[in-house]
Design goal:
Number of strands: 8
Strand content: 25-35%
Order of helices and strands: EHHHEEEEEEHEH
Strand order of the largest sheet: 1-2-3-4
Largest sheet: 4 strands, antiparallel
Helix content: 40-55%
Structural class: alpha+beta
Length: 158
């Protein structure tokens, strides 16, 4: 059995998300001091942007920061909200892509079931990514590499 481990980058991202969530609360209690007498429109605009950013970050963490257990028969996927048990034979296969950032390029595996991406396993979030990838390659069909785009990433969830 193989178990995933979070990388230090996952902990940093989670910490920054929590700070981003606290910021609108702080601004609410100090809105007159921060925005002056006419604070309503400014506060709503700034808080809406921060709240949108926070929701975006939280969804990203829920989607990608997962703990998985893989054995010969099933994959157990745990995130903040849920736990799923999926038989390895139920997967259509996996696709690989590369996501680029300011600090480097990170490989991502998409586990596909019924033509939908069930889980993303990112080298950015998982410290033992190579071990997990080699285990998956022996158990699940490789559907190949595809170039990354934000549009195709979101389409996989619809």
């Amino acid at each position: 059995m193989v178990k995933s481990k979070f990388s230090y980058r996952t902990y940093i991202q989670a910490s920054l998300t929590i700070i981003t969530l606290i910021l609108p609360i702080y601004l609410f209690f100090n809105r007159i001091k921060a925005f002056g007498d006419n604070y309503n429109i400014k506060f709503l605009f700034v808080s809406s942007l921060i709240l949108f950013s926070c929701i975006w970050l939280i969804l990203g963490i829920i989607k990608r920061a997962v703990i998985i257990y893989i054995n010969d028969k099933e994959i157990i996927i745990k995130n903040i909200l849920s736990e799923k048990h999926i038989n390895i034979n139920d997967f259509d296969g996996f696709e690989t892509t590369s996501e680029n950032s300011k600090y480097g390029s990170y490989e991502v595996i998409y586990l596909i079931k019924d033509n939908k991406s069930i889980i993303h396993l990112s080298e950015f979030h998982i410290s033992n990514y190579r071990e997990i990838k080699s285990f998956i390659e022996g158990k699940i069909n490789n559907l190949g590499y595809f170039p990354f785009s934000f549009l195709s990433d979101w389409k996989r969830y619809l």
